[in-house]
Amino acid sequence: MRNGSVRLNDSHHLRLPKLGRLRFKGLPSKILDQTDDIRIGTTTVLMDAVGHYFVSMQLGSEYPFVSEQSVIKSKVGIDLNLTNFLTDSNDQVIDNPHYYRTIRGKLAKAQRKLSRRARRAKKSQRRLSASKNYQKQRLLLAKLQLKVANQRKNFLHHVSTALIKNHDLVVAEELRGKNMLRNHALAMSISDVGWRTLLGMLAYKADLYGRKFLTIDPRNTTQTCSDCGHVMAGKNKLTLADRKWTCPNCGVFHVRDHNAAKNILAKGLATL
Ligand SMILES: [Zn+2]
Fold it and tell me: What pTM does this model have?
């Protein structure tokens, strides 16, 4: 596999311009099986806050990297909400991951310690780059942050892969920054659980596995009865506290998020 100056020698060695021959790990074996056929496009080298280096390569091939999944005739709508991570139209609930809550205290403590060391260095007129204690703490904090980020990424990969592999069609709501920012606490927890990242993953995995992923306008997905279409409005409008409700028009009992997920799927199907 090569592209002018970038060359993949084997599963553990590559050659990059200026840097020369490098050892690396993490190449999927599936890719190596078809090396003759693969072209290397843009190659990027990144370093994270902890000092790990990453090479990312854009690869092209005549043959798909992932075998197409069989048709399973299953469609699903997903409601992203705050009481759990998501509820789907089949009433499956995925709970919020708890890793962040448990590590949050540790993060705050490490951050405070870092600030203290910065102040101390300033007081004794040392540059931060020359302060060993500060640098040690900075690395410790960066490692903690990286750990949280990796846990979140793993969780989102797990959820998005399962959704795409198990359904031919996945429908979600568009996330609207403007709506979300109105409620600061809501916006915070949205960035916390990573819904935007999840939607991005669903989009590219749908392409990869030959599935369909749609986002729809979130208007009234919560307030509409999925049985009769009645819209709760005015003083009947559901608030965030109304987790369960009964439709005043047809009398059907609803669990808020499950009902929303059903409406989201219906909206998606209507656009096809
Ligand atoms: Zn109804």
Answer: 0.79
Q: How far is the CA of 47 from the centre of ligand 1 (A)?
A: 54
CA of 222 to the centre of ligand 1 (A): 13
- Listed by start position, the domains of the chain span 2-60, 75-96+154-271
Task: Name the residues annotated as catalytic.
Answer: 79, 173, 257
Ligand 1 centroid, distance to 5 Cα (angstroms): 64
Q: What is the mean pLDDT of each run of 10 residues along the chain (272 residues)?
A: 73 87 82 72 87 87 76 90 88 84 85 95 91 94 89 92 96 75 54 80 93 95 96 93 95 96 97 90
Report how far ligand 1's centroid is from the alpha carbon of 227 (Å).
5
Q: Return the CATH number of 75-96+154-271, one of 3.30.420, 1.10.10, 3.40.50, 1.10.3470.
A: 3.30.420
Q: Tell me the CA–centroid distance for residue 228 and ligand 1, in Å.
A: 4
- Enumerate residues with CB within 5 Å of ligand 1 (an ion): 225, 227-228, 230, 247, 249-250
Q: Which of 160, 164, 142, 163 is nearest to 152 (CA)?
A: 160
What is the token pair recorded at 38? 């693969």
